[in-house]
Amino acid sequence: TYATLDEEDRVKLNDSIIHATVIKQESPEDDDTSVYHVFERLNAGGLKLSAQEIRTAVYHGDMIDLVRELNDHEPWREMFGPRNKRLKDQELILRFLALFNNIDDYERPMAEFLNKYAGKYRVCSRELRLQSQDLFVSTIDEIKNSIGRAAFRPERTLNAAVFDAVMVGLARRLSSKNGLTREQIRAAYNSLLKDAEFEAAIVHATSDEKNVLTRINRSTFLFSKA
């Protein structure tokens, strides 16, 4: 600490100059996307940060804190696996919440959409935090109990497009207060993976507006009729 430094070192520190560049965005006023892009462009040396790592720094606040807390939820840890050093697991949680709550505002690229959501709810109400927490926990718990770790993995690795569609589709059904049995959830999930429209929307151009809406709408439909 400063108090434990030698007198000579304290004098040097007191006389030092720290340069700082303050970046402000004048327009648009409703988000800080330009700050994100400047950060991204400056991030050229050393270890290049992931989109979520930059997002966590630029949009630090209530929503980012909530995502970090949800990332510790044990069933999610069992579903995803070990914590991702580049915060991919946290980005998936943010992706689910953003698509569930703001799907009508979705425009590609996905990274920009997530930036705007994190910025919009940097400061959010306790009610929204509790709703978001309950939404994620209840949905991932149902998937873990009915499908297990194989969920979101049409191949061997977790597919983000399958993740967001299944999560949003099931969450919509659960939000309607019409519960599903584990057998019904498994049946709807298996039907979804065999659906031709859904399959096309999770393979190519997965962040394209049409494909995002198609896979989420197909998931919503199949879970609603289960």
Judged by helices, strands and strand pairing, the structural class is: mainly alpha
In round numbers, the mean pLDDT is: 93
* Major sheet characteristics: none
Strand residues, percent: under 5%
Task: Describe the fold and architecture.
With 226 residues, the protein is an all-alpha fold. The termini are far apart. It is 62% helix and 0% strand. The chain has 12 helices and no strands. The protein is elongated, with a radius of gyration of 21 Å.
How would you briefly describe this protein structure?
The protein is 62% helix and 0% strand. It contains 12 helices and no strands.
Layout of SSEs?
Layout: H1 7-14, H2 33-42, H3 51-58, H4 62-70, H5 74-80, H6 88-102, H7 110-120, H8 126-146, H9 160-175, H10 182-194, H11 196-201, H12 209-224
